[in-house]
Amino acid sequence: MSSFHDRHLLVVGAGLAGLRAVEGARGAGWDGPITIVGDEPHPPYDRPPLSKAALTSDEEPVVPVLRSCEVLEDLQVRHLPGVRVHGLDTERRTVTTSAGDLGYDALVIATGSTATTLSGLTGLPGVHVLRRYDDALAVRDSLARSRRVVILGAGFIGSEIASAARARDVEVTVVEASSRPLKRAVGPRAAGRLVGLHAEAGVRLLTRTTVSGVRSSDRGVDAVELSTGETLTADTVVLGIGAQPATAWLAGSNVALDARTGGVLCDRTLATSAPGVWAAGDVACVEGERREHWTAAGEQGRVAGANAAGAGEVFAAVPFAWSTWHGHRIQVVGETTAADEEERGDGLVVYLRDGREVGAVGIDSPAPIARLRRALAAQHVTADA
Amino acid sequence: MSVIQADKTVCEGIGMCEAQADNYFQIGDDGLVDVLAAEVPESDRGYVRAAIDSCPVSALRLEG
What we know:
heterodimer, A: 385 residues, alpha/beta, FAD/NAD(P)-binding domain, five-stranded parallel beta sheet, 8 helices, 25 strands, globular, B: 64 residues, alpha+beta, Alpha-Beta Plaits, three-stranded antiparallel beta sheet, two-stranded antiparallel ribbon, 2 helices, 5 strands
């Protein structure tokens, strides 16, 4: 029998969820070797700044690393950068990679997601997605040379890019396929207020509109043709139309995927259908839901890592997300879609179920949001007890 | 003994610190972090460090 301290924890994916999995495992007493594999050349870094400071700051951007070299050394984790994963054999407990086979005793899947693209647009100079650090550099560079930008998708990423573009005095049109932006994130009244921020900042928003064609020259994209018949001149086009869980490498493995979301099926302990395999972050579908937020990715990572080390924890964090649009601080806490929606003063929209506050959207309203988040977290603890 | 330093000019009131160590951090009525106890004994250092490292805008430091 191999002694406990020889056991190898393999974490696939070097983003926030992967890094927190390493920390969660160490925190729960895992004393064997840990390897974290990422397909990018950078050390584990943070994604929120990519669509915020990295686009707007006048300073030359640097990789927003999650932990210093010293902290990574203390964690005694081996980081393999630039390594792509190709397959998983749960019987042999082996992951096939571009750097050879890697065995494991416990595995955390934290491969995140891949930005959705549109055929006909991808690969054209001036057309971007924003998911990785290198994407952020390309968008930043492109915005700096642009006069007109078209953004596809009025969700959080699209809105943050619109905000960065306006800060650079670039003309912005956001093209949204649905009749109402942010449908998956917030109720109609909060969405109305959020969309209002774009109008105030001079962003043109077109709903119920899709792209029907694109015009380009040697230099790259020139214009975008819309379903309405209108043609928009553009020197930059950015797609913010969602992201798909990065699960191609799991094809043929025993790790079950959720049919609806495509994410890795997990219970609240972040355990997958395969023994010795956990999942966390954007790739994970926990009890039918993919929560693609920074706070969820971090907490799921920590719980998955701790449970890989035998802790027996459950993921039960209060949903929380934040964003900054045109200088306004936006915060979303708790349940903000299906519940009754009530507009309050001070930039607050509250969500109620049976008269009880279950969530809120705040625009420049951090104090009430912090109070509600505190109350909801206390209820979560009580409900779990 | 380590000491918590908070930079309120950088803080965005996201509250990751409070979510992880609410006996040391709270988002106040101004929407920014209040440090409830600046001095951290060795016994609490681990989880306070984790709370500080989790700040997405790097508004917190642990010195000493």
